[in-house]
Amino acid sequence: MRPLYESSQDIVSESKVLILIEKAWRCRGVKLPLKAQLDYLLLRHDRGVAWAEIKVRTNPRGRYPTYMISLSKVMAARELAGASNLPSVLIVQWTDSLGYIRMDTLENFHIAIGGRTDRNDTQDIEPVVLIPIDDFRGLNET
Is the Cβ–Cβ distance between 13 and 20 less than 8 Å? Predict the structure, then answer.
């Protein structure tokens, strides 16, 4: 079994982003179990409105031309969206902005091999999706 790399600080940072999402989109997030592969189901009036994956980065939005996310994460997002008829969104908090993009309707991306090398975990290198940073919308954009 692989180790979990989510620290208590990661959970606190993610929770702060969730508060912003809940306020901006007038919803509430319910944390999902690990097997769901995404972080939250967003609810409005106790009905699901979207699946959400939240990422918090320690760099500004413009540092890299693309955002890298695991292909398996995008596949899970699309599967959940297809089964439920709800959108799946990736929400990213950079040091200087907060943005989102729908993973279930992504069209402008490239596939590559990538991942982290700082943990000495060979499982961290995998097929990834590279999404142009300019394709992300601001949190309050519809």
Answer: no
